[in-house]
Amino acid sequence: MFTGWKLSVLGIVIVGIAGIAASSAGLIEPMRAGALFAVFVLFIGCLELMEWIKRRGRSKNNRKPSSK
């Protein structure tokens, strides 16, 4: 199914559509919906960055030491 960055992009699209629908229906002010969307995108970005750092550190630990 969806994993990694594809799941993040799907989540951002769904939250964006929900924010537009909520502000159009008058449930939330448009500026507040935009601010909440920006916070959500930053949160997802931080999660992706932490996952990238974790994968990068794991690959460095699996390397064999050079024999000099």
UniProtKB/TrEMBL annotation:
The chain crosses the membrane at residues 7-28, 34-53. It comes from the Bacteria. The keyword Membrane applies. Keywords: Membrane, Transmembrane, Transmembrane helix. This is DUF1328 domain-containing protein.
